């Protein structure tokens, strides 16, 4: 019986793996088509200055409107796009779209928000990445310091040789770099001292327990102090509760992002969000 059971489980496992594989293959085929037909769009999630309540920037987050499956989240297709190399043209589209959007915000505001763009490993390693970024900034007339390139901590850790020099070049041009999902990649202190970055984004999973756990609060407090010592601005990701915002503000975290303030917004809603922002409270 045990043997039969094991066999069934194996069969179920095989079926599930097979289904997952098929799904990925289908996504890969559909991605090609989506890129040609323009089925992607960006949403923008406000990043709030916890001291003043002002919107410091927006993070651009890609969405895929699939003809038959509705909206597909980036978690489902970014790594497929990485594997197939499609991330390169897709990433370029994202970068250009985000920069164009930020340029339109800049025209309407004295203190324009920045736009944060997520960049994946393959994109960063692509020869000509620096050029693509700088050309797009020039073409849209966006000040380089209104662009933040978000790179995950784990990618920065594994990519010291290649990507770091491109990031340094971009920073010399005024573009800022954020370490995304900090806390998940086991950075050493010496690494943090050298990494070419301006902003540190604390991963969402560190934020949720801060109001209820002394240890968690101490940990986040430590991260904020360390970052501040290293001249990194800190953004807390995934703030959902007022109590979380209060704890973070108290330990000196300057910026926050999360559903408490706003979910990611479509382009029009982001513009409206800014207009509301400019009316003095
Ligand atoms: P990320 O860069 O860490 O983005 C933050 C994610 O957290 C977003 O998910 C956002 O919608 C979600 N989020 C924001 N506030 C809250 C909150 O209060 N609670 C919860 N539970 N979640 C919150 P999203 O849009 O599904 O993106 C997931 C990941 O996909 C991103 O993580 C990023 O790594 C990647 N991604 C998104 N857009 C792009 C892109 O344009 N290019 C690349 N290469 N990767 C992207
Ligand atoms: Mg990000
Ligand atoms: Mg993140
Ligand atoms: Mg994340």
Secondary structure layout plus pairing:
Layout: H1 2-37, E1 40-49, E2 55-66, E3 70-72, H2 74-84, H3 87-107, E4 114-118, H4 121-125, H5 129-140, E5 147-152, H6 153-158, H7 160-172, E6 176-182, H8 189-194, E7 199-202, H9 214-229, E8 233-236, H10 242-250, E9 255-256, H11 267-278
Helix pairs in contact: 1-2, 3-5, 5-7
The protein binds ligand C2E and magnesium ion (3 copies).
One magnesium ion (MG) binds at residues 180-181, 201, 237.
Structure description:
The protein is of the alpha/beta class and 281 residues long. Helix content is 52%, strand content 19%. It has eleven helices and nine strands. An eight-stranded mixed barrel has the order 1-2-4-5-6-7-8-9, surrounded by six helices. A hairpin with a 5-residue loop joins strand 1 and strand 2 (55-66). Helix 1 (2-37) packs across helix 2 and helix 5 (129-140) runs parallel beside helix 7. The longest helix has 36 residues, at 2-37. The N and C termini lie far apart (70 Å). Ligand C2E is lined by residues 45, 61-62, 73-75, 78, 94, 118-120, 150, 180-181, 204, 237-238, 240, 257-259, 264.
Pattern of helices and strands:
HEEEHHEHHEHHEHEHEHEH
What is the spatial order of strands in the main beta sheet?
1-2-4-5-6-7-8-9
Low-confidence segments, ≥5 residues, pLDDT <50?
Answer: none
Helix content: 40-55%
Shape call: globular
Largest sheet report: 8 strands, mixed, barrel
What is the CA-CA span between the terminal residues?
70 Å
Please indicate the percent range of residues in DSSP E strands (runs of 2 or more).
15-25%
Instruction: Count every helix, treating DSSP H or I runs of 4 or more residues as helices.
Output: 11
How much is the radius of gyration in Å? 20 Å
Summed over residues and divided by their number, the pLDDT gives a mean of 91
**Heteromolecules bound:** ligand C2E, magnesium ion
The helix/strand class is alpha/beta
Give the number of DSSP strands. Answer: 9
């Amino acid at each position: 019986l045990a043997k039969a059971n094991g066999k069934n489980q194996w069969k179920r496992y095989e079926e599930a793996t097979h289904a997952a594989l098929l799904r990925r293959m289908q996504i890969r085929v559909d991605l090609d088509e989506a890129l040609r037909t323009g089925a992607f769009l960006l949403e923008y999630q406000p990043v709030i200055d916890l001291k003043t309540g002002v919107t410091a920037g927006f993070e651009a987050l890609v969405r895929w409107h699939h003809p038959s499956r509705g909206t597909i989240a980036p978690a489902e297709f970014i790594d497929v796009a990485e594997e197939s190399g499609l991330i390169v043209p897709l990433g370029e589209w994202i970068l250009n779209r985000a920069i164009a959007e930020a340029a339109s915000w800049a025209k309407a505001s004295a203190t324009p928000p920045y736009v944060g763009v997520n960049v994946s490993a393959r994109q960063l390693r692509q020869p000509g990445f620096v050029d693509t970024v700088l050309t797009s900034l020039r073409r849209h007339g966006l000040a380089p310091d209104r662009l933040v390139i978000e790179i995950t901590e784990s990618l920065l850790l594994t990519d010291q040789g290649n990507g770091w020099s491109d990031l340094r070049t971009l920073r010399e041009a005024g573009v800022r770099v954020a370490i995304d999902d900090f806390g998940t990649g086991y950075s050493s202190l010496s690494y943090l001292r050298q990494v070419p970055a301006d902003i540190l984004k604390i991963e969402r999973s560190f934020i949720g327990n801060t109001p209820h756990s002394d240890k968690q609060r101490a940990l986040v407090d430590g991260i904020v102090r360390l970052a501040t010592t290293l001249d990194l601005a800190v953004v807390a990701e995934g703030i959902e509760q007022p109590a979380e915002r209060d704890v973070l503000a108290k330990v000196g975290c300057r910026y926050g992002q999360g559903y408490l303030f706003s979910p990611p917004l479509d382009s029009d809603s982001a513009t409206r969000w800014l207009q509301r922002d400019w009316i003095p409270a």
